Amino acid sequence: MTKQHINIGLFGFGNVGRGLYELLKRVPEANAEIVEVCVRNLEKHSKEAGDLKFTDNATEVLDNPDVNLIVELIDDADAAYEIVTAALRRRLPVVTGNKKMLARHLPELIKLQKEMDTALLYDASACGSIPVIRNLEEYYDNDLQISVKGILNGSSNFILSKIFNDGMEHEDALLLARELGFLESDPTLDLDGWDSLFKLVILTLHAFGVYVEPERIFTYGITHMTDADIRFAREKERRFKLIGHAEKTPDGRLILAVMPQLISRNKFIYSCEDEFNGVVIKGLFYGKQFLVGRGAGGHPTSSAVLSDISAIRYDYFYRYKRMHSADLPHFSNDIFFRVYVRYNDESDLDLLRFDEIYERYVSSDTKYVVGRVNLARLHDIREQLAERKIFIAAYPND
Amino acid sequence: MTKQHINIGLFGFGNVGRGLYELLKRVPEANAEIVEVCVRNLEKHSKEAGDLKFTDNATEVLDNPDVNLIVELIDDADAAYEIVTAALRRRLPVVTGNKKMLARHLPELIKLQKEMDTALLYDASACGSIPVIRNLEEYYDNDLQISVKGILNGSSNFILSKIFNDGMEHEDALLLARELGFLESDPTLDLDGWDSLFKLVILTLHAFGVYVEPERIFTYGITHMTDADIRFAREKERRFKLIGHAEKTPDGRLILAVMPQLISRNKFIYSCEDEFNGVVIKGLFYGKQFLVGRGAGGHPTSSAVLSDISAIRYDYFYRYKRMHSADLPHFSNDIFFRVYVRYNDESDLDLLRFDEIYERYVSSDTKYVVGRVNLARLHDIREQLAERKIFIAAYPND
């Protein structure tokens, strides 16, 4: 069903939707146009782009006989799920960027795609403009995958960059990020790692063929990072980066986590700055690959959306080949690893149940430990760590 | 013609061919096996891999009825051309890594593919394991392409890294690269930029839809770099990198060059070290993308070859969409730009015909100029620059 012309039914007209509208005007070769746009606030949008037809009736767009592809770019994950499934059931191919919805519903969406023989593409959902899903699907899928990790959230990376590069105070960096519109209305999505978590769930499925519910993955952000932590990183000539991490162990287990990490200067990710995302993909034969690009923003993300639209024109669909692999790795949190923990009260240390302690520092204004903990334990006590404002970061020995 | 099983007729059994053989053993899911191998020295190879069938008769492999795909991995560009065209004429799809052959013959090979309706894939030919051609074809092809540039040769980058990172002497770095097998038997291919040139020609076709004969592109390497040049770069807190550069100007011209460049610390490419390749791709909407990976070596390159083999299994072929664009850019060398030139004799300066000179330094042991020259002039006097052992590097004002 190679389509000569793509007629888009668009849901949402925020930064990315508007970016797509502008991009399509610049690229007539794409042979795609927006036929109808569904928005919540009809009043607000209908004045903006005069040549577009707006509605607030989702069914009207889904049932529009001129529409042959749905692009879903709204914030609300539940509403997005309704739209995407309704479209697929009508055998309308869908392009979406909704990572939260995907991370929650991927298994059923994969099933529905297959049942309806209709494509759902979502490269814009993970790392904005970086074609990471497409490459995991199409290029790295024949090698023995070892790990996928990286900076999956642009806002928190922007803040960390301002602190470590420009010597900005933590509070000021946060304010600047807010001013520039880099933070979500609910900033905990970015700063506590939830946004990175959703992307990690999606990437893990494509890299290792395994779906893991977001709730099972230890996720901890940079909200409780203080100046003492920043000083520690500087002394060690490292930088904190918020890292999503998926790795297959030699004994066939799949370890997943989202948390800050002390990155040394010789790592690719050390130099991935500002609002950029950076992903390091490792395979047995191809070795190490590093992909960097803008992880957010209307224009970069709309370019990724258009790449997916164009792929659908050529009948492209994800094959999820890894899911059919003979020996899928098994998700596990049972691994010990080296961490830096800045704590406030001695009872915090009991909570963490260190396997070993390598380094310990106590002064009147700061206390920290470098030691070995179990990831499963961290997952169990996540809430308490946050309540006690403990800061924790992976601190690999390299 | 989605193939259930790929039966490979392999030409060449060097590092990459052997890497492919090992990789296929590890990945049964690839559903591919090597049926017959054509080598020059039958004696040498037949003992190495006991389960493989070797021959020195090319026609035998091409006419083997069990073979349904040809993988061409030999050094000799002329012989490779014969094999690739003979295979395509037999409607046998081909995977090749021969950049020199491709850079010379791409237009006719594109025509032949179309005539025979048979795929020719070659992602391994440019930047080893980095999927740069595939991404230019499939992902970045809907945006307005601005530039593609980067480190396209691993050996010269290894040498420059040893000098700038490890403080190694130029001569020692060269010796180490030779010891580790990073230099071609003819090292001028790497050091004088010819290898980068061939890759640039291939990438340019996929990024901008324009084929430019290698001879028309100014190409200058690092052979004449001296300690004085290295000192200059260090003083300016920059590093020399050998860069292949393709850029579309706002007035629709296509500027191409391969030459050293003084890279400042804030650039992605500054941190691309050792034998890694790194490519920066810029588009109007997606912004800046940076892809890094091993640019050479049997294993990384064989992984790229297997990705192409697998793509052929799914009927993938390059569409060369950019070539059908309405306004193709026109190749031009007529551009002025800022360079650093270390010279030996005052007459060298007349040769270069500087438009402007910004900086000039003369001492008993070194002489250099920072000024503005025309790329077309450099192209005209390339031979003389080399004869006079002049070192020249782009020196952007950033």
Q: Which terms would index this structure?
A:
398 residues; 17 strands; alpha/beta; 7-stranded mixed β-sheet
Overall description:
Chain A has 398 residues and is α/β, with parallel strands linked by helices. In chain A, 37% of the residues lie in helices and 25% in strands. The first copy, chain A, has helices at residues 15-26, 42-46, 58-62, 77-89, 99-116, 132-138, 154-166, 170-179, 188-191, 194-208, 227-235, 298-313, 346-352, 375-380, 382-387, and strands at 6-11, 32-38, 54-55, 69-72, 94-96, 120-121, 145-151, 218-219, 238-248, 253-264, 276-283, 287-294, 330-331, 336-343, 356-362, 367-374, 391-394. In chain A, strands 7, 8, 9, 10, 11, 12 and 13 form a 7-stranded mixed β-sheet that branches. A 6-stranded parallel β-sheet of chain A has the order 3-2-1-4-5-6, with helices on both faces. Chain A has a 4-stranded antiparallel β-sheet with strand order 15-16-14-17. The longest helix of chain A has 18 residues, at 99-116. The first copy, chain A, starts with 5 loop residues before the first strand and ends with a strand. Chains A and B meet through helix 1, helix 6, strand 12 and helix 12 of A and helix 1, helix 6, strand 12 and helix 12 of B.
Q: Could you outline the blueprint of secondary structure elements for this entry?
A:
Two copies of one chain form a homodimer.
Chain A: E1 6-11, H1 15-26, E2 32-38, H2 42-46, E3 54-55, H3 58-62, E4 69-72, H4 77-89, E5 94-96, H5 99-116, E6 120-121, H6 132-138, E7 145-151, H7 154-166, H8 170-179, H9 188-191, H10 194-208, E8 218-219, H11 227-235, E9 238-248, E10 253-264, E11 276-283, E12 287-294, H12 298-313, E13 330-331, E14 336-343, H13 346-352, E15 356-362, E16 367-374, H14 375-380, H15 382-387, E17 391-394
Parallel strand pairs in A: 1-2, 1-4, 2-3, 4-5, 5-6, 8-10, 10-13
Antiparallel strand pairs in A: 7-9, 7-11, 9-10, 11-12, 14-16, 14-17, 15-16
